[in-house]
Write a structure and sequence with these properties.
Length: about 220
C-alpha cells in the first residue's frame, strides 16, 4: 500500500536554506516538498495549490512569515502552518501562534526538530521547542497574575505591510510600486498608522516594527 505523503510548501528567502531543508524533507517516505517561495507574498499565492503544510521562515522580504501565516489562515484554513526562525524570541513565538501556526522550529536545530514538527502539525498537535514551552507558561502565569490579556494588533494586514516596508527604508514611491497602489494611498495609510499608534516619524515606526516582529532587529 502506497503511503500518502504530506505535500509541503517551503518558504525562505535564502535558496541555500531551502535546498538544505528540502533534502531533509524529501528523504522521508511520508513528506514531499511540492513548491517553494522566496518571500511571504509568494507563499500566500502558492499555499492554496495542493498544499497540506506550509513551512514559513519568519524573516522574509515583502511580507514576513507571520503576516503570510495570517493571510494563509484566512484564505486556506485547511493548510497547517509551521514557523521557522533563527531567533529564540518570545514576541515572534506569540505572534506566530496568534497567526495560526501550530509549531515554531529554530533553524539551528531544524535538522533535528523539523521532521517531528511536520508530523505533529499533520496530527493536529502543537510542536514547540523546550524554551518556547517555558515562555508560554511564564506568559500565562503573568497574565493570570495581572488579570489581563495581550492586546490584538491595532493595525490591518495592509497597514502592517506598509509599516514593514517603511521600516526597511523604502520610499512612498517604492512602496506604491511594490504594492501596486498610488503614493497618495501609501501616504494615507502611513498617516492612519501614525495616528493609531500615537507616533510621529519613521524612527518610531521602525522601533514598533521590530517589537511587533515585522522586521529583524
Amino acid at each position: 500500500m502506497r503511503l500518502e505523503r504530506t505535500r509541503i510548501l517551503l518558504a525562505d528567502d535564502h535558496a541555500l536554506v531551502r535546498r538544505g531543508l528540502r533534502l531533509i524533507l524529501d528523504a522521508e517516505p511520508d513528506l514531499v516538498v511540492v513548491s517553494e517561495a522566496g518571500n511571504g507574498a509568494e507563499a500566500v499565492e502558492l499555499a492554496g495549490e495542493g498544499v497540506d503544510l506550509a513551512i514559513l521562515d519568519i524573516a522574509m522580504p515583502r511580507m514576513t512569515g507571520i503576516q503570510a501565516a495570517r493571510e494563509i489562515s484566512r484564505r486556506a484554513p485547511e493548510v497547517r502552518l509551521l514557523m521557522l526562525s533563527m531567533y529564540d524570541n518570545e514576541q515572534y513565538l506569540f505572534e506566530s501562534l496568534k497567526a495560526g501556526a501550530s509549531g515554531y522550529v529554530l533553524k539551528s536545530v531544524a535538522d533535528r526538530d523539523l521532521l517531528e514538527a511536520c508530523r505533529a502539525a499533520m496530527r493536529g498537535e502543537p510542536f514547540l521547542y523546550p524554551g518556547a514551552v517555558t515562555a508560554l507558561i511564564r506568559d500565562f502565569l503573568q497574565r493570570e497574575h495581572q488579570g489581563n490579556e495581550h492586546p490584538s494588533s491595532l493595525l490591518t494586514p495592509r497597514e502592517e505591510e506598509i509599516v514593514k516596508l517603511i521600516a526597511e527604508g523604502h520610499s512612498s514611491r517604492e512602496i506604491a510600486d511594490l504594492l501596486v497602489i498610488s503614493t497618495k494611498t501609501v501616504d494615507r495609510h502611513r498617516a492612519n498608522v501614525l495616528a493609531k499608534l500615537g507616533m510621529r516619524d519613521r524612527l518610531e515606526l521602525t522601533r514598533y516594527a521590530i517589537r511587533a516582529g515585522l522586521i529583524e532587529p
